[in-house]
């Protein structure tokens, strides 16, 4: 992902630029993720569990960031050559920091279900400031630090099956006082301290942006407006 400024701007950009959901009937044939993400800012690591449902005829073959080590999989996986990478997003190019591995199920899952658990370091920092037209930008494959988290599809933090739409539910275990924002319907922090999101339709990728944020809410009829700020600003 390319974005102006530093991580402090990531929340606003992700909420504004996150993929738009399609109607439910347009989501047929998409890969469905049930993700549980644990953030460890002190070590710059993430741990993920993903229960996948593949559409009929979809090969159980995907890309994943090489920094992430698969601890468990059903069915069993084998690593194969990465080959060509066709990454699609309305917002992002493939960051240079994103070193990838490709995996394939040794036995195709008869029911289209794949279960994974994996973890690893995922703090790649931000690239040097660059110029694009009249605005500067920086890029990253992902950031997990005490200042906040930024994950996008271009970092391949979840299994990537190709340039096509997907659906997801997401549960995020995060530090005290943190809020994690993603797409669709959900909450950045519930009574148990977890962020929970449901894409509520098909998306082109999955974002997670957050950190030790201050949340402001205002009701406008049936719509609730929320602002996530790095510092308190009651005005």
Structure overview:
By secondary structure, the protein is mainly beta. Helix content is 3%, strand content 44%. The chain has one helix and 19 strands. The strands form five sheets. A seven-stranded mixed β-sheet has the order 5-8-3-2-13-16-15, with no helix packed on it. The two termini are 31 Å apart. Mean pLDDT is 84; it is low at 1-26.
Q: Radius of gyration over alpha carbons?
A: 18 Å
Helix-strand makeup class: mainly beta
| Element order: H for helix, E for strand | EHEEEEEEEEEEEEEEEEEE
- C-alpha end-to-end distance: 31 Å
Gross morphology is globular
Strand content: 35-45%
Mean pLDDT metric: 84
Number of helices in the DSSP assignment: 1
List keywords for this structure.
7-stranded mixed β-sheet; 235 residues; 4-stranded antiparallel β-sheet; mainly beta
Topology of this structure?
Elements: E1 2-3, H1 10-17, E2 31-40, E3 45-53, E4 61-65, E5 69-74, E6 77-80, E7 100-105, E8 113-121, E9 130-132, E10 135-139, E11 143-145, E12 148-151, E13 166-173, E14 179-181, E15 185-187, E16 194-198, E17 208-211, E18 214-220, E19 223-229
Parallel strand pairs: 2-13
Antiparallel strand pairs: 1-10, 2-3, 3-8, 4-7, 5-8, 6-7, 9-10, 11-12, 12-17, 13-16, 14-17, 15-16, 18-19
Quick summary:
By secondary structure, this protein is mostly beta strands.
């Amino acid at each position: 992902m390319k974005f102006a400024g530093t991580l402090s701007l990531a929340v606003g950009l992700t909420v504004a630029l996150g993929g738009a959901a399609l109607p439910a009937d347009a989501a047929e044939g998409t890969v469905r993720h049930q993700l549980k993400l644990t953030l460890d800012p002190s070590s710059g690591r993430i741990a993920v569990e993903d229960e996948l449902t593949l559409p009929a005829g979809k090969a159980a073959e995907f890309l994943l960031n090489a920094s992430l080590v698969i601890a468990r999989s059903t069915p069993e996986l084998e690593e194969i050559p990465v080959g060509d990478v066709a990454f699609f997003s309305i917002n992002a190019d493939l960051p240079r920091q994103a070193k990838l591995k490709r995996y394939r199920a040794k036995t195709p899952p008869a029911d289209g279900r794949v279960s994974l658990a994996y973890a690893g370091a995922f703090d790649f920092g931000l690239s040097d400031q660059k110029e694009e037209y009249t605005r500067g930008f920086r890029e990253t494959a992902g950031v997990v630090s005490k200042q906040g988290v930024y994950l996008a599809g271009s970092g391949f933090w979840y299994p990537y099956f190709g340039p096509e739409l997907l659906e997801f539910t997401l549960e995020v275990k995060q530090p005290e006082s943190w809020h994690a924002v993603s797409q669709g319907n959900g909450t950045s922090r519930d009574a148990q301290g977890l962020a929970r999101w449901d894409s509520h339709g098909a998306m082109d990728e999955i974002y997670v942006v957050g950190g030790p944020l201050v949340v402001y809410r205002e009701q406008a009829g049936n719509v609730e407006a929320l602002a996530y700020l790095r510092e308190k600003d009651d005005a």
